[in-house]
Amino acid sequence: MKILVIGSGGREHALCWALRKTTHAAVELYCAPGNDGIAQLARCVPLKATDTTALARFAADERIDLTVVGSEAPLAVGLVDEFAAHGLAVAGPRATAARLEASKVFAKEFMARHRIPTARFRVAESAAEAREILRRGEFGAADAAVVVKADGLAAGKGVVVAQTRAEAEAAVGELMEAGRVGLDAARRVVLEEALTGREASLLLWTDGQDYALMPAARDHKRVGEGDTGPNTGGMGAITAPDVLDEATLGRAVREIVEPTLAGAQSDRLDFRGVLFIGLMLTPQGPQVLEYNVRFGDPEAQAILVRLQSDLAEIFAAIAHTRLGATPVAWSDDSSACVVLAARGYPAEPETGARINGLDEAARRGGVQLFHAGTRRAPDGTWLTNGGRVLGVTAAAPTLERALADCYDTIRLINWDGMHYRRDVGRKQ
To answer: How many domains does the chain have?
Structure first.
């Protein structure tokens, strides 16, 4: 069986690792473009993840049996549509369905249309309109928190939780005028009331008809301990029984998961693939913060180390609409992923630092090192090559044990400028 994974980060390394670990068939694994860590598991193909034409040509020429898309950008530009046009099996949503992530405006209007619990919101087409909405006090007094979201894809950095109206106006200027995440991504913004509560991430696989839930996860978006500093793509994630208790999970399924899938069918989105639902567990019940149309990163790492079923079989079932007949089983463990980042992340990360202790850390049993931003020098040494460099991941019977395994392993690794959160898994 030939499988192609699209992407180049820690999430894609985790996907390749899980495909190798759980898949019963003999597999030839490819990754485009991949990275030097992934190259230990798969043949890396030097094609951009968003070059849909070249990727479809490669898949056809190599007779790839199944393609798995890791990141959001290829989905947004229509990779699944391109592959489908060539009769190639791919597990992921078409571009129309990918708008649930690619456009915050589309997602919020979808939620409103299908009565899915979410924060009150307004859409602003310009910075002037956004400031006018804020100054009218639609989201409370001047000292009330407001969330400002760029409409388009922004690599997890297009959301600002402003603690005051003044901060919200400053965020509007940074996003819509200064181009902090690119002016295309912030042509429009969504202004939301700030929900309070604990966050959780609920992921599932769906083939457009049936679905299978994954273990609920919680991530840590802010760069600093105690949830301080700017938002990042994610500094760590956990799965554990108390992330979502059974009653809250049941309510989220009834009020959010199933109405979302029904709404996608009603709107003829033909959603299939991975659906990520970011939740805020408010006193009034779970509400949706955002949709993603693929695995989160680093949620994927923490989730996939618990998978016991055949991952290739699951993705093939999604592509061929037979998920309802496909077993999906998980270990009873808890799990954790702690991200090691480079100096300057998330703004302007430094690269090229020599990573010490990586080979020794990789030999530790029970811990997986997922490469997100590394490069191997000709002499075999590992160098940093991105903002998020490594995801140190473990599963264990308790969350405390999984976290201890991660942090014990991290003590073996260092480079100039390495930083990470020491409070992953702690209740904030």
So the answer is: 4
